[in-house]
Amino acid sequence: MSTAVWPPIAPDQLLKEEQASQARELEWLLSSLQETLQSLKAGLEECAALLAPTEHGSTLVLSTHRSESLKGFVTRVGTRIVKGDIKLRLQSLPPPRGANSYDLSISAAPTAPTLVLGQLTTTRTAINTALDVVDVTRWAGNTNDASYISGQLQLLHDNIISAQDALKGYSHLQKEWWEQPADEKIFSPPLPPTLDLHFSIHDSALLLTVRTLEPVSPTPTSESFTGFSIRKGLVAALGGARIAAHDEANDTFQYKGQDVKVKDKVRVESQDPSLIAVMVKLSALEHQLHLAKRALDVVMGRDE
Q1: How is the chain split into domains, by residue range?
Q2: What is the reported pLDDT for 298?
């Protein structure tokens, strides 16, 4: 940036005038950032309210679109799944005698473990931390210290990004399904060892992945002459390629202390309006904060 003054003044005087002008601009910007912080706090409080437990919660439908493999619903209250009924019809999961589906529900027993959505806990923690950062910045810190305000804005930005990542499903704190399986006693009846239900958040939607499992034999066993094994043999003999039933069909996982393979896998997403609203608000807040950080960097001479 260059400055021209008429009539011309001495270079050292020009430098002083430029510095004084920059100081006034920085003072004005730091003052206006207090209003920005107040606006950010209001938006973060709206996000926190959307994630807070309510009396009725959010009831979400779970259903496969082109089959009867999975039908049901769950109710989310805050970060927990408190109610739900699920009906499964999978070839590798025979229903009880006299039933045409394998029925599960979220246990209402007083001693039953709680089904907590870890990503929502991460999101709520990040939002609450961001609110604390705003309060500390406005009331406890030196609001005239540009370097301090810049650091606080960066900390605020980091927490908003962390909340967004958790809602998208990209949180590094989220463990894989085989690393942290759900307690079988969450459900009624309790899950058998060959069945895993994994609830998570993906792109602001509730994602339920159902897997039927089979232990990996330490030594190969002879195949039975079922229709399926005969078809596999014919395909191999004719040089055909086997088509995997799902993306984890050829993988082995360490699950509850033993190696297992996934026989059947069903994945169902249910859009959650409250979580979508939180993501939209967080995106708007992140954009607003980015503009504020950028403006402060420019005035402080950090725009290179």
Answers
A1: 18-191+272-304
A2: 87
